[in-house]
Amino acid sequence: MTDTSRVLIFDTTLRDGEQSPGATMTHDEKLEIAMLLDDMGVDIIEAGFPIASEGDFEAVSAIAKASKNSVICGLSRANYKDIDRCWEAVKHAARPRIHTFIGTSPLHRGITNLGQDEMIARIADTVTHARNLCEDVQWSAMDAIRTERDYLCRVVETAIKAGATTINIPDTVGYTLPQESADIIAMLLEKVPGADQVIFATHCHNDLGMATANALAAVSAGARQIECTINGLGERAGNTALEEVVMAIKVRRDLMPYTTRIDTTKIMNLSRRVSQVSGFPVQFNKAVVGKNAFLHESGIHQDGVLKNVETFEIMKPADIGITETNIAMGKHSGRAALRTKLADLGYELADNQLNDVFVRFKALADRKKEIYDDDLIALMTDSAANT
Ligand code: KIV
Ligand code: ZN
Fold first, then answer.
1. Which pLDDT band holds residue 379 (cuts at 50, 70, 90)?
2. Which of 140, 146, 167 to mutate to test the pocket of ligand 1 (most atoms within 8 A of CB)?
3. Three-class SS of residue 119?
């Protein structure tokens, strides 16, 4: 990649996202989501973990065959069996990638029972094997953040020498904070021989609610691939949300002078489909894609937005593909919003008529939490009947 301002978007909704307990998707649903991601401009789709089950293998193969633009990636542990199975699934893609990982922190080394040198040998061997199968190999140091810094430099150097083209530095347990996330990437870029020849990726979990901030901090320090999921779906508290990092880069170009290939107008549709097929509702106040993310109910906000939308909105609903109105009618709404809303519904009112409807609207809003268009139409029909 020659454009140093380009940030690659690596979507793992179908792998890390699907690892959320209860978020299992069917073969056809995965294929549909993958096609939407491909069409939206995602650079790399992690389609699954082929060794995990026959179903995962079939889904990754089908996505590899059907993809048009995106690199299709599969996950594998650091052994030949996993890597071979992964290759069998992704090899059908026009642009396949093998992603292999091993836990490098003391806790994870304890689980695999490998000493530091044995692990180095394993990384060299498995990355070389993957690279003999596929030109595009991503290597991840699972739990990188809790790995001793000098050892992290050694394992990253080993993976680069063995042929990895992307090095991923995951915050597997969502433990880091933005400054540390940036410092680690900066340190690796400075200290590891060959670091300038590969792409560094950031993969953050959201256990402390920091996944978006940590990913952006890593980019500021030189990472050029963000691993993320739609709606932030993922293990435990989830992963970095794709819609948040992409919109942050778009909205704050002054502080984040980078570009992505994402067609942001497709975000809302993907968010809704992922929510439907995974069965995970999106929280109402979720950044960017929550039901309330662009809704204004208080009279002061509604009035401001009606006069100049930028008073209370930093991005346009249309930028993420929202076509519905951004005015929510409720007991906090004012006259100006009611007049605009009724005009949208086809009712142009004189001032005295508006006063009358406004009184009845407030009485209704005190009784009912949300006022829908149909409620307003009923109010207007009532009004006409009584005059
Ligand atoms: O969180 C993590 O460390 C992972 C790796 C497999 C990349 O998901
Ligand atoms: Zn993860």
1. confident
2. 140
3. helix
Burial of 35 (0-12, 13-18, 19+ CB in 10 A): middle
pLDDT at 155: 98
In angstroms, what is the span from residue 171 Cα to ligand 1's centroid?
A: 8
Tell whether ligand 1 has an atom less than 6 A from the beta carbon of residue 176: no
Q: Nearest 5 degrees, angle CA 137-CA 142-CA 148?
A: 115
Residue position matching structure tokens 């207007």: 380
Residue 85 φ then ψ, to 5°: -65, -40
Closest residue by Cα to atom 8, ligand 1, is 16
Binding-site residues for Mn(2+), in ranges, read 16, 203, 205, 239
Tell me the ipTM for this assembly: 0.99
pLDDT digits (tens, 9 = 90+) for 17-49: 999 989 999 999 999 999 999 999 999 999 999
More confident residue, 233 or 298: 233
- Which DSSP symbol is given to 280? -
**172 within ligand 1 shell (Cβ under 6 A):** yes
- Structure token digits, residue 2: 């020659």
